[in-house]
Amino acid sequence: MSHHIFDSRIIAAPMAGGASTPDFVKAVHDAGGLGFLAAGYKTVEAMQAEIRSSRALGGRFGINVFVPDPAQLPPSAALRAQLEDYRGNLRADALRYGIDIPPLRLDDNDQWPGKVELLLADPVELVSFVFGLPGTDVVRALHRAGSAVLATVTTVSEALEAAGQGVDALVVQHGSAGGHSAAFQPGATGRGHNLGDGGDGSGPGSTAELVTAVRAAVGIPLVAAGGVMDRAGVEEVLAAGAQAAQLGTAFLRTAESGARQLHKDALASPHFTRTALTRAFTGRPARALVNDFVRDHPDAPDAYPAVHHLTAPLRAAAAAAGDGERVNLWAGTGWQRARAGSVAEVVAELLG
Length: 352
Description:
Blueprint: E1 10-12, H1 22-30, E2 34-38, H2 44-57, E3 61-66, H3 77-89, H4 91-95, H5 112-121, E4 126-130, H6 136-145, E5 148-153, H7 156-164, E6 169-173, E7 179-180, H8 207-217, E8 222-225, H9 231-239, E9 244-247, H10 249-252, H11 261-267, E10 275-278, E11 286-289, H12 292-296, H13 306-320, H14 343-351
Parallel strand pairs: 1-2, 1-9, 2-3, 3-4, 4-5, 5-6, 6-8, 8-9
Antiparallel strand pairs: 7-11, 10-11
Helix pairs in contact: 1-2, 5-6, 8-9
């Protein structure tokens, strides 16, 4: 696979939950970058509709798919007990909005088999995976269908495992990245232990240092993700050995981003002064602006997506009420440099 598969050094991260719409992805392409649709949380039918919309709009794009964790399907009895305790802890939050916390849902695989089947039947040029690895058989099948495959990793060990499955490129995500951590091996940041460390939880080193370490271990193209917010940051990770930089937080406030206005406003608000990794919203470590919900629930179980389903109605009610203290305000460590304006303006500044 060519080391020029991206045709741009700027990649807009696939931001599940609504930010990465087809219109947003097209705007990134038109500005000289490469955008990825986010299949996470969507049905197969909704994923297919977004692929069709992006094709109709024209331009290159990729798509990102969540890999389910077999250990969570279903969770162990001990983890179920933790989830029931957490469900009880959420009732005080729910009372604020007059809603109920739903019963546990323990069978959600994000429609993984159907999404893989669709991508084999109706291939997308670039397919990336997060939260785990797709498996050698899936990688080979996607190659036969004509797709290039990217895996998201957070450590050298994960990079070696991913490269061993024959993927074409790696998205190397540092702990400074906003939103969910891609970590999938035991012991990686936030997996299976408390997240409170007194700092921001971003882990050792910098994004560039992680890229350098992965570059020394594998010989396939790398995309650097985590804390990159400006041209200097892009140039730093390229100098470390990445072919491109992947940015999410830098695009969240743009006019074309599908993020909620509440989220966009929070990124610009002096009320929020730091980010942290938290499992409070979804059960998987994710970097967010520290609000009351993050502070009130430091010990959420390591149980994704069961926690996601428990908090979904609460987050929706908080968003409808304009309450930024109980919604997931995903943000990387450089969030204060996120700018409003158009995607074209942001990409132009990044490309210099």
